[in-house]
């Protein structure tokens, strides 16, 4: 299957009944799998969460960040994603090597991996220095259902969230998702039409694997609606904010005696970014400088 570049776009129906945001995320999910050395179950879970974050961000903020933290009683532990409306996303799974058997439908058992008991925390930072967090109970541990539950509880708006990751023995074959929100002009017929389309045309990744691009998938899943794109196709990517400079700055809050001990005993400070698994190191001389003792201190 030819894999198109990852991207995202927004659209609205001309009758004012629905709006949608849709994305393909195959390459960024594959990148996350490689960076974190994820199991198949963890790849499916984090891939869906990364996709959900990218879809949510442009719906609920124009700038800043949207963070999703799934905290259930399953073996994966915490699943954390941080996304921006500019199309960047990063994330990690607390226990990336967890592998579970397929569920009764033959799919990755993301619900059991996250756990059916727990919470989804959604933090919105609009860039003004006052982020706020909403918390809802997990509906099922399935990413799409839980994000949909959050939207219904927070916006009191009917919505549909589809996120999927398809893997084969070589890795990530297809990943992407769609959020459809009902607008005030919707009718019962609007809901029935969307449900019929989903039943008829299959899953998101099934359509991707058939070689369809975003606009064709959107037209298929929202068949019967006349759509107008609000934004052009925009690239998306896994992008972390970490750097060696940020790690160095973080060391400044450590007690000076601890910095000296680290320099003398370990010869360096080592740090790892949870989001991208990148390691950073600060050598002995710079540690002693941070402690205010100078490079010649023994």
Helix count from the secondary structure assignment = 10
Instruction: Extract low-pLDDT stretches.
Output: none
Radius of gyration: 22 Å
Provide the succession of SSEs: EEHHEEEHEEHEEHHHEEEHHEEH
Query: How much helicity do the residues have?
Result: 25-40%
Category from helices, strands and their pairing: alpha+beta
Mean pLDDT: 91
What's the β-strand tally?
14
Assembly type of the chains comes to single chain
Distance between the termini: 60 Å
Q: What is the general shape?
A: elongated
Beta percentage is: 25-35%
What can be said about the biggest beta sheet? 6 strands, antiparallel
Write the layout of secondary structure elements.
Layout lengths: L6 E7 L4 E7 L1 H11 L3 H21 L4 E8 L6 E5 L4 E6 L16 H5 L3 E8 L6 E6 L5 H13 L3 E10 L2 E12 L5 H14 L2 H6 L4 H8 L5 E3 L4 E2 L1 E2 L5 H7 L5 H10 L2 E5 L6 E5 H7 L8
Helix pairs in contact: 1-2, 9-10
